Amino acid sequence: MTPPPPPLATVTQPVAVVSERLPWRHTFISLRVPNFRLFATGHFIAVIAIWMQRIAQDWLVLQLSGSVTAVGFTVALQFLPSLILGPWGGMVADRFAKRRILIMCQSAAAILAAALAALALTGRIEVWHVYVIALVLGLVTVLDQPARQVFVHELVGPRYLRNAISVNSTTFQLGGLIGPAIAGVLLTAVGAGWAFAANAAACCSTVAMLLLLRRDELFVSAPAPKSKGMLREGLRYALSKPTIYWPWLMVGFISVFAMSLPVLLAAFADRVYGIGAGGYGMLNALVALGALTGAVASTRRRQLRLRSVVLAAGMYGLMLCLSAAVPTLPLFGAALVLSGFWCLMFLTASNQLVQTSSNMSIRGRVMSLYIMVLIGGQALGGPMIGFIAEHFDPHAGLLVAGGVPALAAATVAVVLARKGELTLKVDLRNRRGPLRVVRRAS
Predict the structure, then answer these.
(1) Domain Major facilitator superfamily (MFS) profile, which positions (predicted)?
(2) Is pLDDT larger for residue 134 or for residue 348?
(3) 288 pLDDT above the threshold of 70
């Protein structure tokens, strides 16, 4: 007699662990998969354009309104739909074909970017136009992000999933290095309209890439049948697993306080250092340079542990505090590079841990809740951080952005140490590192 299947909350794929050090030729091993190689190429082009639009949009709002708070409000409008409707987007991702969802979403994003470009190039654009388009784009993101996260598994399968997540982060940050620099040049030379036009073209190229994928080589999972309580089921599943809900908690602190860094950098570029649009693009590029290094480092991470997530979150917060304290622009730029590195080490570790701890049949809902916290938190944090930067001081805003997550990480570390009876061991003779977290002897 066949035993009944175990409860859903106990069915999960194991966290991938690589016991030996990977050779450098395997750093981007997931690119050996033809479908993922094509997807990564299209994604890279799209990310450059997305960063160009983000930088141009923020700077345009600052110039039109003269208010850093208005920049934060724009961010809030773009991310608010994910905060409210995020779980619904995950349910849709579990029930329908991810590739088809992405094609529809990228087509809509192309139309919105083209509308923004037309308004900017004709000189008719006003702040409320940006607000409306940002809000509608946020609605598109509700469906796009969960489907995109889960679609990576369909491209590479379980074997290369962790590496593919890191490769995606690498391409995102490499695009984040190039996009702001190009946006800074375009803003200075010809204005924001051409940055929006470039994003519209990139969205069209993404649609073409999705249509060219070899459908017979996709690792397509059976869609989850419609049933009552699907969202509650996903939430119960996530809260039953420490490797999901602790990263969620840390992502919450990071997203609300520390992910609105571009808002703060606009204030520093305009009011502290007076370096204009080109300088604003440069500051964002420095963050992306550090993040690119962190993304590459994450591809070589041998073990994926909860403590790695907490450590990276704490270090990111501390680096932001360091950025607030340095007195000169060169030192500020160097601190931003370090901030970007630890931000990506945190984001890749938390994303990988949540995905590999989730059963495939419920992963869309789990990731939608994760994205709801990650993106939706910025809807709350953007206006708050912008208000502090405008009405108090940009340095105070940066100190709050880093200090709160750092304190949260320290608190979580103490709680986890007590639960696991862990202690910090100092061994100066250890070549792998003088500090290690070990289990306390009974």
Answers:
(1) 30-420
(2) 134
(3) yes
What angle (nearest 5°) sits at the alpha carbon of residue 327, between those of residues 255 and 176?
40
Domain locations in the chain?
32-439
CA 398 – CA 336 distance, rounded (Å):
11
Amino acid (one-letter) located at 190:
V
Q: Are 206 and 56 in contact (CB under 8 A)?
A: no
What's the pLDDT tens digit per position in 90-118? 778 777 888 899 999 999 999 999 999 99
Q: Has residue 24 got a pLDDT over 70?
A: no
Q: How far apart are CA 369 and CA 146, in angstroms?
A: 9
Which residues fall within 8 angstroms of residue 19, CB to CB, at 6 or more apart?
Answer: 302
- How far, in Å, CA of 418 to CA of 112, rounded? 50
Per the CB < 8 A criterion, the answer to whether 314 and 406 are in contact is yes
Residue 408's pLDDT is 95
For residues 178 and 140, what is the distance between their CA atoms, to the nearest angstrom? 25
Residue with tokens 């946006």: 183
SS (H, E, C) 34-67: HHHHHHHHHHHHHHHHHHHHHHHHHHHHHHHHCC
Q: Look up tokens 């409320």; give the residue.
A: 128
Could you tell me the two tokens for 109?
A: 């994003």
Q: Residue 126 in contact with residue 94, Cβ under 8 Å?
A: no
Q: Looking at the predicted structure, is the pLDDT value of residue 268 above 60? A: yes
Task: Among 1.20.1250.20, 3.40.50.10190, 2.102.10.10, 3.40.1110.10, name the CATH number for the domain at 32-439.
Answer: 1.20.1250.20
3-state secondary structure of 102: helix
Both ends of the chain: CA-CA distance in Å?
A: 43
pLDDT of 244 reads: 87
Please report where in the chains the tokens 């008719």 appear, as a residue: 124
Q: Which helix (H) or strand (E) holds 216?
A: none
Strand (E) or helix (H) holding 126: none
Distance CA 422, CA 322 (A): 28
pLDDT at 16: 43
- CB < 8 Å & 24+ apart, contacts of 16-20: 16/161, 16/162, 16/304, 16/352, 16/356, 17/302, 17/303, 17/304, 18/302, 18/303, 19/302, 20/302
Which residues fall within 8 angstroms of residue 428, CB to CB, at 6 or more apart? 434
Residue-wise pLDDT tens digits, 44-84: 888 888 888 888 888 889 888 888 888 888 888 887 887 78
The whole-chain average pLDDT of the chain stands at 81
The pLDDT value recorded for residue 5 is 42
